[in-house]
Amino acid sequence: MQLRSSFLPQDDGRCGWYGLLPPPTPGISVSGQINADWVVLGAGLAGMAAARRLAELLPNASIALVEARRAGFGAGGRNSGFMVDLPHDLNSHSYTSDKDADRRIIRLSRGGIDYMREIVTRERIECDWREQGKIHGAANGQGTRALEAFSRGLSDLDEPHRMLDAAAMKAVTGTDFYKAGLHAPGCVLVQPAALCRGLAGSLPKNVTLYEDSPVSQIHVGQPHRLVTANGTVTAPRLVLATNAYASAFGELGFKGRLLPVYTYGSLTRQLTAEELTRLGGEGSWGLIPADPLGTTVRRLASGRICIRNSFTYNPDVAATSRMLERAKRAHQKSFDVRFPMLPGVDFEYTWGGALCLSRNSGSAFGEIAPGVYSAVCCNGLGLTRSTIAGKLIAEYALGMDSELLRIMLEQPKPCRNPPEPLLGIGLRSSIAWKEWTAGIEL
Ligand SMILES: Cc1cc2nc3c(=O)[nH]c(=O)nc-3n(C[C@H](O)[C@H](O)[C@H](O)COP(=O)(O)OP(=O)(O)OC[C@H]3O[C@@H](n4cnc5c(N)ncnc54)[C@H](O)[C@@H]3O)c2cc1C
C-alpha cells in the first residue's frame, strides 16, 4: 500500500515557549537510505515516549524517530503546559463524563505524569516542572455553578480539591475578575517547549532523531518505507505518532474519524517590576476556565502572562495569518478584561497549534495494519494522554500486558464523522455557539 501525505506540518505562528529558548543545536535530517528495526513517525510527546520506551525495552534495536520540524516546535511545545491528571472532556460542559470512564482516564493520565516525572528527574530536564496543581476559575454565576458541579463530580471520585471564593482568587491571580475557583492539586505545570527539547536531548543512544524531515509518502509493506525529500527510512515496524496530521495518510491515519482542531496562545512581553507589583497575586499559577471554551491563563515565574483561547476547525492542519490575527485580538480582549491594572501590555508572541479530537473522545491506539502501530488522538490532553499512549504502544507492540495497557485498549476508537461539507458546517457552528455561550469566560 502506497500512501501520499495530503498535507504536511506548517509553521503556525511564532510560539513564545519555543522563542524564549536559546536556538537549538544543529540536528540531523534524513539523508540517503536509512535502515532501522523500528521507525517512529512524529517527535511530539507520543512519538518521543514511544521511541524512548522501545529503546528501554529493546536496548539492542535501532529506532529511527522522524520529525518534520525541530523537536518542541510542534504542538508538543506549543501548548499551555498543563499536565492534567483529572477528567477533562472538551466535549462536555463540566469536563467530566461518567464515573468509571473518569476513573480510567485518571489512571492513564497519572501514568503519563509518573513516566514523565521519572524521565525529567533522571535526565535533569530543565522545563520549569511545577507540582502546584491547577485552578479552575469562574467569572460569573454560570461558571460558579459549573465549578460546583465539577466539585461534586470530584467528591464522588474521592479526588482532593478545594473551592476558592472571590477573595482567595484575587489573592492568587491579582485580579478581581474571578468570582470563584477550584484548586485541584494533581496537575503539573511545565514549560512545554523546554520539556520537548529536553526529552529530545536525552533520548537513549539507540534512538536516532531525524528532524526537519517531513515524510511525504509511506509505503506500507515488509519492510515499511518512509519517503522524505532527501532520503528514505526503511523498517519492518512503524509507529504512527502524528496526532492531528495522521489523517494526511488517508485510511491508514483514520481519515474521516479525526477532527483536526486548532487552538491559539499568546505570550506577553516581560512585565516590569512595577507592573508585577501593580498586578499583585502569586508569582506562578495556571488557570483553566470553568467553561471548556473559555480562556486559559498562566502567570509565569519569569514575569510574563500566557493566554490561550479560540478554536477553529482546520481540516488541512494549518493556521492562516488571518486566524492568527483574529486569535491575537481575542487574546488581547481577554487579557484587558482580566488585567485592567496592566493597560498597554501587548503580546510578543502569538501562535496556533493542532489538537486532535474525535467526536466520541476515542483514541486511535493499537495495530492498524500488519507491523503498523498507532498512538494518535490525544483529545486535547497530549501532555499526559499522548505520553502514556506513546509508552503503552511500545509495550503493546512487544506483546506486554498491564492494567494500564488494558485500560488503554478499552478506550473507544474514534467514531466516523459525517461527510463534508456537513462536518465543517456542523463543527464551525458548534464552536461558534459554545464560544458564544462561554460568554465572559472567554
Ligand atoms: C495552544 C495550545 C494549548 C494547549 N494546551 C494544552 C495543555 O495545557 N495541556 C495538554 O495536555 N495539551 C494541551 N494542548 C494539546 C497538546 O499540545 C497536544 O495534545 C499534544 O501536543 C499532542 O501530542 P502528540 O505527540 O500526540 O502530537 P503532536 O505534538 O502534534 O506531535 C506530532 C508530531 O508529528 C509530526 N509530524 C506530523 N506529520 C508528519 C510528517 N508527515 N512527517 C514528519 N513529521 C510529522 C509533527 O510535526 C509533530 O511534531 C494544547 C495545544 C495547543 C495548540
TrEMBL record:
Coiled-coil region(s): none
In its keyword annotation, does this UniProt entry include Oxidoreductase?
yes
Gene Ontology MF: a single term:
oxidoreductase activity
What GO cellular component term, any one, is given?
Answer: cytoplasm
Q: Which residues form the FAD dependent oxidoreductase domain?
A: 37-395
Q: Which PANTHER family does the annotation name?
A: FAD DEPENDENT OXIDOREDUCTASE DOMAIN-CONTAINING PROTEIN, SARCOSINE DEHYDROGENASE-RELATED
Protein name, please?
FAD dependent oxidoreductase domain-containing protein
Q: Which UniProt keywords apply?
A: Oxidoreductase
Entry-linked Pfam families: DAO
